[in-house]
């Protein structure tokens, strides 16, 4: 059995870890590796190694840092297919989708390649007679990233290229369910010329996470995962005096107005609900059918959902792969059971799907539940599977009210041909990322990604300008260089001229 080790100080190591967790191949249902689970002593080694590396990396010129980033960009690009295959084998998603994930991560690296521009400071000449003021930003130190299973390359890349470009040392604790991609990323950083210890991977579970949250030398924590854990991370890291951004779960609604193009809206709804088996924080899990066309919308969506080709992520014909574990599959089908019991109509039933040749794989077929109401568990909870719940509303204002009553506020979308309705929607919804005829409105790398309400704890969104601000702190210098022949007298009041 292959053992996936940590990456500390520029190479792989077991450190003092003895506990392991299984890593499955979701398409076959077989265990393919085991991953080490770090103890606090391993985390301490990782953080102290990173702290040592920070001393010189933070003093490294912007020119040298930029060269490393450009080299890393080339290497990730060259290894994109390999990364995508690793993702497909451990996460389950189809390779073409995994390639898209790598591409979106790469765009953050490209953003970070502009670090000399992004770290340009401010300068105010002659704010008072003979006095200048200027500001610049410095890195924080060792910063940690704790990431979920659903984007094993992209979500860590929301963090580490930006943190490292800013001059920090980064310790990644990836998901223990698909840990291998991070190891290739670590090798690529090393090949790009990043000094040892600036990028570290420590695998583990709650024990490792808690050790990071409590470690006095960790200055900041970036977390992406489910809402209960995001809330916990935020509280504990905050209590320990750390800077923290914690992105949580989601329940993303897509509103379909009667004036929308039915073919376009239904195509995009099904792709956004079933892509990556619904295991995306920006997946559409609730469709809000507005007006009298709801039955027709459900019919068309159901037909398209039935046509989705489900199979192993490595097979080119597959449009949707398995879900990540047997436990995830059982949880998802349990939700479909509960929806049915609570009165929803199962328009398309993905329970019990068997993929020939992959009978033990963790497959759930596309599922559409109709006549869902806000009190049902399938509506209230994040299912994180290929399940689309259809709720109904009489007009756009009712749809906006429904979305605003939901505790999550990650993403949402509207399908319409009315600019007025779209504008009312974008101004009215309490959600961080909004799509207008775009079902999954993930911001580009040079904007920042983040939700509202229970989808984000802390103030800061990730990557883009907010990422730069998160991983740095400001210094403002007030300076004067008096002429030797004309010294300035000290005074006992605030200078005002
Ligand atoms: P998760 O919360 O179970 O795990 C995320 C990370 O936290 C992992 O590294 C895991 O090891 C660690 N962890 C798990 N339990 C912990 C505990 N009790 N104490 C400390 N650490 C713990 O999330 P997941 O199942 O890996 O990922 C899916 C979730 O992530 C979904 O809720 C999804 O919406 C969310 N997500 C959100 C975004 C976003 O941008 N808001 C992006 C991707 C995923």
Automatic annotation (TrEMBL):
Alphabetic keyword roster: NAD, Oxidoreductase
A Pfam family hit: Aldedh
EC number in record: 1.2.1.27
Occurrences of domain Aldehyde dehydrogenase (ranges): 16-477
Name assigned to this protein: methylmalonate-semialdehyde dehydrogenase (CoA acylating)
Keyword Iron-sulfur: no
One GO MF term: methylmalonate-semialdehyde dehydrogenase (acylating, NAD) activity
InterPro entries the record matches: Ald_DH/histidinol_DH, Ald_DH_C, Ald_DH_N, Aldehyde_DH_dom, MeMal-semiAld_DH
Species the sequence originates in: Jiangella aurantiaca
GO biological process, one term: thymine catabolic process
């Amino acid at each position: 059995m292959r053992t996936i080790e940590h990456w500390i100080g520029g190479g792989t190591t077991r450190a003092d870890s003895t506990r392991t967790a299984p890593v499955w191949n979701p398409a076959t249902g077989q265990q393919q590796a085991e991953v080490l689970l770090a103890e606090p002593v391993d985390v301490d080694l990782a953080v102290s190694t990173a702290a040592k590396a920070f001393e010189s990396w933070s003093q490294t010129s912007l020119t040298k840092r930029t060269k490393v980033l450009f080299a890393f960009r080339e290497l990730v690009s060259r290894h994109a297919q390999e990364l995508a295959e690793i993702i497909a084998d451990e996460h389950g998603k189809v390779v073409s989708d995994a390639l898209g994930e790598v591409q979106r991560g790469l765009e953050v690296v490209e953003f970070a390649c502009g670090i000399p521009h992004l770290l340009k400071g401010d300068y105010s000449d002659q704010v008072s007679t003979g006095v200048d003021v200027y500001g610049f930003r410095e890195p924080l130190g060792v910063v940690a990233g704790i990431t979920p299973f659903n984007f094993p390359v992209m979500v860590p890349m929301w963090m580490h290229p930006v943190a490292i470009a800013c001059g920090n040392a980064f310790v990644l604790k990836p998901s223990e369910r698909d840990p291998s991609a991070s190891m290739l990323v670590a090798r690529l950083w090393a090949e790009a010329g990043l000094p040892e210890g600036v990028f570290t991977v420590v695998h583990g579970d709650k024990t490792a996470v808690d050790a990071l949250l409590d470690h006095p030398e960790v200055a900041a924590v970036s977390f992406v995962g489910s809402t209960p854990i995001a809330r916990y991370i935020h509280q504990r890291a905050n209590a320990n005096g750390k800077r923290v951004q914690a992105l949580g779960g989601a329940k993303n609604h897509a509103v379909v107005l009667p004036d929308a193009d039915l073919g376009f809206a239904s195509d995009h709804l099904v792709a956004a609900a079933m892509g990556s088996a619904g295991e995306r924080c920006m997946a559409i899990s609730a469709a809000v059918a507005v007006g009298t066309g709801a039955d027709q919308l459900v019919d068309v969506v159901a037909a398209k959902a039935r046509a989705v080709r489900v199979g192993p992520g490595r097979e080119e014909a597959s449009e949707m792969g398995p879900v990540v574990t047997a436990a995830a599959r059982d949880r998802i089908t349990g939700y479909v059971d509960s929806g049915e019991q609570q009165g929803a109509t199962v328009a398309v039933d993905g329970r019990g799907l068997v993929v020939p040749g992959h009978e033990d794989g963790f497959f759930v077929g596309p599922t559409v539940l109709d006549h869902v109401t806000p009190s049902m568990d399938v509506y209230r909870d994040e299912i994180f599977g290929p399940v689309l719940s259809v709720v109904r509303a009489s007009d756009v204002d009712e749809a906006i009210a429904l979305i605003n009553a939901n505790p999550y506020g990650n993403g949402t979308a509207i399908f319409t041909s009315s600019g007025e309705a779209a504008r009312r929607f974008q101004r009215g919804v309490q959600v961080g990322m909004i799509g207008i005829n775009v079902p999954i409105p993930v911001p580009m790398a040079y904007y920042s990604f983040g939700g509202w309400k229970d989808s984000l704890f802390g103030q800061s969104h990730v990557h883009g300008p907010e990422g730069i601000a998160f991983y740095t702190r400001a210094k403002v210098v007030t300076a004067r260089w008096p002429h030797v022949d004309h010294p300035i007298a000290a005074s006992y009041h605030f200078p005002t001229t």
